[in-house]
Amino acid sequence: MADVALLTHRRVLAIAIPIVLANATVPILGVVDTAVVGQLGEAAPIGAVGIGAIILSAVYWIFGFLRMGTTGLTSQAAGAGDQDEVQALLSRALLIGIAAGLVIIAAQVPIFLGAFWVSPASAEVEDLARDYMTIRVWSAPATIALYGITGWLIAQERTRAVLVLQVAMNGANIALSFYLGLALEWGVQGVAWATFAAEWAGLALGLWFCRDAFAGTAWRTAARVFDIVRLKHMAVVNTDILIRSVLLQAIFVSFLLYGSDFGDVQLAANQILMQFLNVTAYALDGFAFAAEAMVGQALGARARAALRRSAVLSSLWGAGICAVLALCFALFGGIVIDLMTTAPEVRDAARIYLPYMVAAPIVGVAAWMLDGIFIGATRTKDMRNMMLISTVIYFASVIPLMAAFGNHGLWVGLLLSFVVRGVTLAWKYPALEAQADNARSGPVAAA
């Protein structure tokens, strides 16, 4: 797997394209759920499904480290030819996911109370949202375990399986939402039951895709699965990723909160423009995931030349995609804004700040792609520390920038955080390559 001759553009695309297509199905599901409850002719069900989905997504997001950590560790084990460890990592990821889901189920009451305390809604919306979440929360073990399965499949470049899994799960969810929510007239509860069933069905399909691992014995060998050294290493990797993700989320949450100080129009314009960033992230995910898998395998095989070529090839494609996106935003951004809102003042405000969206893919590509490279190498301590530096510089700069330039200063501060993260990770990249020379059998140190 680490032969440089095998690291081709076709291989990068074979990993990346299914992920990009899988990501394209995600917003469709949200649109359908909203459309289903929208047929009930009342505002409260729409708000309830929206709030309930956001709350559960925020809770599940905490465990997003399981996908990234599993990809990095599994790709390295695969590159080293350690199939027993590949099998054991699947078991560890599944156990963590199921355990985390059970904790969420047990703690659902205080979680829901805390969420409504932070973001209160009308009594009717809260009651419906609670009904929705009380049903959906019982699929938490399946949802979080699927993070681990997805990471495990990506590490072995089985992204077509990830695409099939995503399409099948979302397709089942959509069909069941129409049937239960509209045909049977279960409304909000029908939409919740549809997601519950689809997520458990998704877990079953995911396990079927992993069936080769269950043909061996390492996945159920307690001494291997619960090896204390490997468990500690996995815990360190996942903790670093969690801290990094929390810091990144703090930047985006503060961006939205700061934006509210400039009035409703500016806030709405910023929210619309953030969708351009979401599109960029979805498009780049596939190439960042390719970097994770290929870099991890090269590091596991202790092949420095293959590691460098993996990083370069995936980053070239990432840069190309970002250049295309920047051009599309420049040419068609105004049209997209008009499609997203009919309010003239919001349209005008969004157009003023559209140049920042044109710049965002260009200045952010290094940060996004290096994230994938460092995840594959499990250099999570570097990711955590560089994210900390970026966060500190963002908060130190954004306040004076806003004072001087208003909403322009807010956007400059956000883009600056991308630049700092990219530059600092690039500064650490030579040590990542050197790690391939120093790697030994067993867990690769996340220096």
Characterise this structure.
The chain has 447 residues and is mainly alpha-helical. It is built from 18 helices and no strands. The model is unreliable at 440-447 (pLDDT under 50).
Summarize the structure.
The chain has about 450 residues and is an all-alpha fold. It contains 18 helices and no strands.
Helix and strand topology:
Blueprint: H1 9-24, H2 26-38, H3 43-61, H4 65-79, H5 83-106, H6 108-118, H7 123-136, H8 140-155, H9 159-183, H10 187-209, H11 211-214, H12 222-225, H13 228-259, H14 264-300, H15 304-340, H16 344-376, H17 380-405, H18 407-438
Helix pairs in contact: 1-9, 1-14, 2-3, 2-9, 3-7, 3-10, 4-5, 4-8, 4-13, 4-14, 5-8, 7-10, 8-10, 9-10, 13-17, 13-18, 14-15, 14-16, 14-18, 15-16, 16-18, 17-18
Structure characteristics:
mainly alpha; 2 domains; 447 residues
Distance between the termini: 24 Å
Runs in which pLDDT lies below 50 for 5 or more consecutive residues are 440-447
Shape: globular
What is the number of helical segments per DSSP (H or I, 4+ residues)? 18
Succession of helices and strands: HHHHHHHHHHHHHHHHHH
What is the share of helical residues? over 70%
- How many structural domains can be distinguished in the coordinates? 2
Secondary structural class: mainly alpha
Task: Work out the radius of gyration.
Answer: 22 Å
Share in β-strands: under 5%
Averaging pLDDT over every residue, what do you get? 91
Number of strands: 0
Largest beta-sheet characterization: none
